[in-house]
Design goal:
- Two copies of one chain form a homodimer.
- Chain A has one domain: Alpha-Beta Complex (putative 2-phosphosulfolactate phosphatase), CATH 3.90.1560.10.
- The two termini of chain A are 22 Å apart.
- The first copy, chain A, has 240 residues and is α/β, with parallel strands linked by helices.
- Chain A contains nine helices and ten strands.
- Chain A has a six-stranded mixed β-sheet with strand order 1-8-2-7-9-10, sandwiched between helices. The first copy, chain A, has a four-stranded mixed β-sheet with strand order 3-6-4-5.
- In chain A, helix 4 packs across helix 5 and helix 5 packs across helix 6.
- At the A-B interface, helix 6 and helix 8 of A face helix 6 and helix 8 of B.
């Protein structure tokens, strides 16, 4: 039986052996939720870039550049980090380059050694789970956290994914046991529970309540988002 | 109102500002539970030492040396890491030097900048909480984990301490919110819940079921264990 582990922060990823495994990167508020939404809305590809300068330079190459630091659109960027910006196919067929406080760094740190890197969100939880079951490889769920610290929303997503996969995968890592239990306890009051958390509080301060609601929507989309080369692309499950 | 934070692994402690704060180090299975038990059983002092060689060298200075790596007594050491070894005042008035896989390193990493370092265990949870309330300083609960990884028993202790302190301290760190919720969910089936966890499984393999039961006993002792200079000593609450 294949196994699932959870890595609760990119500061701990060096403790995990990623060789031959599928890494699922999650940054619920909001990087990976926004990326999945962009791909659902016909964006051609999304290239995660760890640094602000490197991302800015992508504009010259014909990319739309999206940049966020500390929850705000970074200076000189065309787009911030809201999933709602991508609705109604607003950037159809465009190539996006994106840098965020936590999510893009976490993707960068996941690439080394992993067999595949996916990004995950509540928005495509079931599709991601179905794909992982198909592939039959060990899985590491890599939570972006907040500046290296544990955060609640990414860990709850990890718990939700373990919950869905529990019949198909073994999990004996303590993080997986803890977060599965916490998700099962709070799956029906996820938003209320998260409203205590520090990151949700930060987001409320920026008046993005609507983003939070959107990011917590379960299974709105039925594809996976996968890193191919340097860019994330949409992969429909039936053509996997 | 003073605040509590949780640090889930010594690999994350650099993200916390310890200045002026009281750090409570916890390694439930078994370092800090064993230290508290030793002090309750009239050991004079316990000096945590991060390395095996440095600890061995303490024998020359008249210390009883205790050494554990990966759950087993380390070669050449007089004592391992079982709290039961210290019962019945077996080492009354002795000075102990101890090195363990996770706990002693975590104490070492806590000393820098902190106003005070305590060690915590379920065995003296209420006494530790009472002391923290008296002191009126911010608190960081520093979980030893397992080789840098999150572990369940230390995190549940952290959640238990936040639970007891919740009326007296603020807590807006996500780790504190998560672990308090998880402890509240499982406080009445703590041993069953932990029996799923990787570290408890490791301990079961070493036939130390009795150690587990002992380490999960709540409020058996009513003193705090505090680092004074290089050594942990027993401090009775009434004379604080």
């Amino acid at each position: 039986m294949n196994k699932i582990e959870i890595c609760l922060s990119p500061e701990l990823i060096h403790l995990h052996d990623l060789k031959g495994k599928i890494v699922v990167v999650v940054d619920i508020f909001r990087a990976t939720s926004t990326m999945v939404t962009g791909l659902a809305n016909k964006v051609k590809s999304i290239t995660p870039v760890a640094g602000l300068e490197a991302c800015r330079a992508m504009k010259e190459k014909g990319y739309i550049i999206a940049g966020e630091r500390n929850g705000q659109t970074a200076a000189g960027f065309e787009l911030g980090n809201s999933p709602l910006s991508y609705l109604n196919n607003a950037f159809e067929d465009k190539k996006i380059a994106v840098t965020t406080t936590n999510g893009t760094l976490t993707i960068e740190k996941s690439k080394k050694d992993a067999a595949e890197v996916l990004i995950g969100a509540f928005l495509n939880l079931k599709a991601t789970a179905d794909y992982l079951i198909q592939q039959g490889k060990d899985v590491v769920i890599h939570c972006a956290g907040w500046k290296g610290m544990f955060n609640l929303e990414d860990s709850l997503y990890a718990g939700a994914l373990v919950n869905v996969l529990a019949g198909h995968f073994g999990y004996d890592c303590d993080g997986a046991i803890a977060m599965k239990a916490l998700y099962e306890q709070h799956q029906d009051d996820l938003k209320d529970f998260l409203s205590q958390a520090s990151h949700a509080k930060r987001l409320q301060n920026h008046n993005i309540e609507a983003d939070i609601d959107f990011c917590l929507t379960l299974d709105k989309f039925d594809f996976i988002a996968k890193l191919q080369g340097e860019a994330l692309v949409k992969v429909d499950l039936q053509v996997v």
